Structure to design on (511 residues):
């Protein structure tokens, strides 16, 4: 399927500027003791609460399977459901815009805000708008965008970048947030109260007072959406603070920027995700605020509603039979909270608004692997499988990681459902390509493999402690495995012979 319009020259949004490849960024992060302590405390707390919330449902596995089935069905028929969504939104009084990439989406939103005459917008937390760098585009046009989610406000005040899907300021502790509020709030609006402490209630109250004036005077709001219902044209936002409800009801104009993969066919399909998303993200049975809106209604909520449907590399991802399952993602962040790599490296190391395991498979597909950071992301994993185990829509992230690694290492042409595309080989992987070709040659010749196994077993006493050349870095932190006394093939054949011998003797002694 294709969305309307043509691919712009600048293409999907590039990696965040100034971000090195993942290994270098992670190396810096693991040497920051404060960051590691913040991440360890937060991720362990969230994962424990999530586990208890999920355990309350006896049919959790069936809910996961249902969510997976709904998403897979929708992606297979995405063209049909997007057209139905447009018809439903239009019939309800809204206007639908189609954006093929980040640049076009930013142009559409900027033009819509300028048409209102407003110079400020309030924002509901939206990863899609972060993906396309909408705040920066609005700023260039002289429009101020104010984040109203508490964690996003912390990130904005700190001139920082989000590092987690659910808790964007997870890399900050309470003391850092207090200092940030005291130093920066006055530059953005109402200042923090004198003598502000680091108690969470004090910090939340300071943020509430700071944001209240922005809610009351805002004429335009920008949001994302967790789901869009094709059947009715309804959009849904899950949130926990009430800021989303303020943004979605008070302003005269509401502009929602949403990825095309967020559509579901029917209102009834929401039943599954209303159970799985809150438990997987905030470890709650239900979010405190679940806001749904359908078009416009006279005298109730915004008088103008615009929906910007964002592609930005999603149809390219959809063309990959393995990689497309990443589009099932409902942005719960459960995979981040169980990932040992994310816990140590933090979200900034991924160079994307989508960090952690899901970012490692989603960003290289949305943006391509032309930059060092995107080419390194599929390797930012131990392949332990914890992410797949907790995913509420059963995305097999390890499978996609291996698939993307294969594409990056092999380089050259690759075939995706009959379409030949050229993947740029990542730098520094020449040795890996040579090793994989040697392994393929050996595995294609069982006789040579058997001879090599026997030779290795007989030469086990000559095993070196460290590998030479490029292998030295590997053995600097690991013990080289000791070869077995005999190859598995020989051991199995010997076992089979022993099992057959008693049977023959028993048969020989039978009258």
């Amino acid at each position: 399927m294709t969305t309307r319009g043509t691919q712009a020259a600048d293409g999907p949004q590039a990696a965040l500027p100034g971000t090195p490849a993942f290994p270098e960024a992670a190396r810096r992060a693991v040497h920051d003791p404060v960051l590691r302590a913040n991440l360890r405390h937060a991720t362990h707390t969230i994962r424990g609460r999530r586990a208890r919330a999920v355990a309350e449902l006896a049919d959790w596995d069936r809910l996961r399977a249902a969510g997976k089935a709904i998403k897979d069905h929708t992606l297979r028929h995405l063209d049909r459901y997007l057209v139905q969504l447009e018809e439903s939104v239009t019939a309800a009084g809204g206007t639908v815009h189609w954006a093929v990439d980040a640049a076009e989406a930013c142009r559409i939103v900027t033009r819509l805000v300028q048409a209102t005459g407003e110079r400020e917008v309030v924002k509901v937390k939206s990863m899609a708008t972060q993906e396309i760098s909408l705040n920066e585009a609005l700023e260039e046009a002289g429009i101020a965008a104010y984040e109203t989610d508490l964690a996003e406000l912390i990130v904005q005040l700190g001139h920082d970048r989000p590092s987690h899907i659910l808790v964007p300021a997870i890399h900050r502790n309470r003391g850092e947030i207090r200092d940030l509020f005291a130093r920066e709030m006055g530059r953005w609006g109402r200042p923090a109260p004198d003598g502000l402490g680091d108690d969470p209630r004090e910090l939340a109250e300071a943020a509430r007072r700071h944001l209240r004036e922005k809610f009351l005077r805002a004429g335009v709001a920008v949001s994302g959406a967790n789901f869009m219902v094709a059947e009715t044209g309804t959009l849904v936002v899950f949130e926990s603070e009430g800021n989303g409800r303020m943004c979605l009801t008070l302003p005269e104009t509401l502009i929602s920027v949403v990825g095309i993969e967020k559509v579901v066919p029917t209102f009834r399909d929401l039943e599954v995700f209303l159970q799985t998303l809150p438990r997987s993200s905030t470890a709650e049975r239900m979010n405190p605020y679940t806001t749904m809106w359908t078009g416009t209604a006279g005298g109730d909520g915004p008088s103008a509603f615009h929906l910007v449907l964002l592609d930005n590399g999603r149809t390219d991802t959809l063309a990959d039979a393995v990689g497309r399952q990443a589009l099932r993602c409902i942005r719960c962040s459960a995979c981040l909270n169980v990932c040992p790599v994310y816990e140590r490296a933090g979200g900034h190391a991924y160079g994307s608004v989508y960090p952690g395991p899901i970012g490692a498979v989603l960003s290289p597909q949305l943006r391509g692997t032309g930059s060092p950071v995107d080419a390194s992301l599929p390797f930012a994993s131990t392949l332990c499988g914890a992410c797949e185990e907790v995913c509420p829509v059963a995305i097999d992230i390890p499978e996609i990681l291996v698939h993307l690694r294969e594409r990056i290492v092999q380089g050259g042409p690759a075939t995706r459902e009959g379409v030949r595309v050229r993947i740029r080989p990542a730098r520094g992987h020449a040795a890996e390509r040579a090793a994989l070709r040697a392994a393929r040659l050996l595995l294609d010749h069982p006789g040579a493999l058997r001879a090599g196994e026997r030779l290795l077993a007989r030469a086990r006493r000559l095993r070196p402690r460290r590998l030479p050349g490029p292998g030295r870095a590997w053995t600097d932190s690991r013990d080289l495995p000791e070869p077995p006394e005999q190859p598995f093939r020989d051991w199995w054949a010997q076992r089979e012979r022993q099992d057959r011998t008693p049977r023959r003797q028993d048969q020989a002694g039978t009258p």
